[in-house]
Each structure stands twice: as structure tokens, then as C-alpha cells.
Amino acid sequence: DSLTVLELLMHIKDKIDASLTFRAFCRSAICGSCAMVVGGSSKLACKIKAVDYLEDGVLVIETLKHFEVIKDLVVEQDKGFNKLKKVTPLIPKTPPETEFLISPKEVQSYDKLTDCILCMACYSDCAALDNNPNYLGPFAFSKELRFINDSRDSFDNRIKEAVDGDVFDCIECQACILACPKGLTPQFDIKTICLFLYIDKFPLVINPF
After folding, report:
1. Residue 107: is its pLDDT beyond 60?
2. Do the beta carbons of residue 106 and residue 204 sit within 8 Å?
3. pLDDT tens per residue across span 160-179
4. Is residue 70 classed as helix, strand or coil in its secondary structure?
5. What confidence tens digit (pLDDT) does each residue in 112-144 have?
6. Cα 129 → chain centroid
7. Is 22 exposed, middle or buried (0-12, 13-18, 19+ CB in 10 A)?
8. Phi, psi of 84 (to 5 degrees)
9. Angle between helices 186-196 and 138-148 (to 10 degrees)
10. 67-76 LR contacts (CB < 8 Å, sep 24+)
11. Which ranges constitute the DSSP H helices of the chain?
């Protein structure tokens, strides 16, 4: 009863079918490589017990959605990573003579956003991608907000970048929040970005939702 889905898959591979292929590494919900769809929604296989997702004695395990399948439970994740590349990395301002001073309030505004492990679970469950394959994706918008809230960043077109990524196509289903194994709230991050479009300046905003 205590077997995780990943442990079950490893048992099948070791004892029943050596050809079974899946990704896994840390077994500690840190690397994000074992993300897959279990019982209809995306999760980390190392973090959940198999018995909790049995339906009539059957455990349904599928590949992440919105990705091409390579083999069995392994998908080609470049589509998601290429979306992330559309988010401009932090471009530091010219540093002061000594160092940048960052307030605790500012750190609070993006500290949680840095917990993303790029497991692609939120991307897999995103309903907006069903309608618009060009939609940037939940985790990418969370990354955008992380840079928006960083006073050291000199890139001035973050909001335009989010709009170009079709940020308004979010349907607010909150599936990305349910999928995130780290407790991040991409849908709320998206709403926060949208708020910036209705104010003249972009002051520090801690997720208000």
C-alpha cells in the first residue's frame, strides 16, 4: 500500500518488462523528471502513492499532455523549454558602487516563484494550450513575473513579452495550481501580470489573490 507510482513502475521494469521506459532521477520531488499523468491529471510519480489513484482496481498512467511521445511514458519536452526561451532572462542594471540592496518585501514577491522545478506538469494540464498552441504556458508566465518584481532587472518590455505570449488566453481554470508539486500558483501570477496593464507604472506587487 505504500508504493509510490514511481516505485511501482520501477518494479514493473525490474521484474516484469525491462523495455518499459520512463524518466526518473531524484525520487524526492526535486528534479521533476518523473512527471506524468496519473488518474487524469499531471503529477510527480515519486510523490504520490499508487493505491490512492486506483479506480476499480485499475491504475491509469499516461504521458504528459501537449508533448510528442518518444516512447512509453517519455515525451519530447523541447516544446515547453522553447516557450521558456521566449522569456528574456534577467538583464541586470548597472550595479551601484557597492552592491544592490534588496528589501525583504521584494524578496518575498519572487522567492516562491524560484521554486519551479520545470517538471512541465502545469503545462501538461493547461487548458489554454488546448485552444492555442502558441500560448506561452503557466510556468513561463510565472518566470516573467519573477523578473517583473526584481528591481535589478533593466529589461523594459516584460509586459509586452507576456502579451505577445497570449497571456489573456488563460481561462482561469486553476488546473496549473492543482498540478504544481511545489505549491506555486501560476494562474494567480498570470492575473498579477494582467493587472500591470491597467496601471501607469509597475510597482512591486506581491501576489494579491
Report:
1. yes
2. yes
3. 999 999 999 999 999 999 99
4. strand
5. 999 999 999 999 999 999 999 999 999 999 999
6. 13
7. buried
8. -65, -30
9. 50
10. 67/120, 67/124, 71/21, 72/20, 72/21, 72/22, 73/9, 73/20, 73/21, 73/22, 73/23, 73/36, 74/21, 74/22, 74/23
11. 5-11, 78-84, 104-111, 121-125, 128-131, 138-148, 158-164, 175-179, 186-196
The values of phi and psi at residue 55, to 5°, are -125, 110
Q: Which set of grid coordinates corresponds to residue 124?
A: 501538461
- C-alpha 182/C-alpha 186 separation (Å) is 11
Q: Let me know: does 192 contact 207? Beta carbons within 8 Å.
A: yes
Give Cβ neighbours of residue 19 (< 8 Å, ≥ 6 apart): none
Please give the model's pTM, rounded to 2 decimal places. Answer: 0.89
Q: Which of 68, 61, 175 is nearest to 128 (CA)?
A: 175
